Here is the input.
Amino acid sequence: MKKNSALLGFTLIELVVSIGILAIFSTFLVAVLNPFEQFKKAADTQRKSDLAQIQRGLEAYYQDYGRYPTASANKIVYNAAALNWGSSWAPYMDVLPKDDASGKNYVYVVSGDGQSYWLYTSLDRGAHDPQACNSGAACDGLALNGIAANACGGTCNYGVSSPNVSP
Here is the structure.
């Protein structure tokens, strides 16, 4: 009797080779994509976007008052109250952005004359982010303003500022 090769299926060696090739391909794919790094990158992008939003609000405030708002406990002061991150700052912003990551926060500092400000945060990727201060170390402006390097809930390694100073 002749065996019908269509009914036999895969041999054990064929299955082992197929599984081995899939394992190598999967390992390569995970190594290239690095999902954990992608999550960090997404969180850092959100933080940068938040600081850019706050900058626009601060510049609108400056246009109205000729100075930037004062600061208290690293927060923006408006109508004699320090605004919590995540609260309203009407009419400049519906909601001040808040970093939802555990233990992270934004730091706002203003000069005594109200003509300069600095905003800082901590990036998860640190030195791996090309826009981080000092290759992921604390931004230089922190020391100038008497702010602790870890005031952001981690190393304050990313900052933006008013146009007349650098972070």
The radius of gyration is 25 Å. Strands lie at 71-72, 75-78, 81-82, 107-110, 117-121, 158-161. Helices lie at 12-33, 35-65, 140-144.
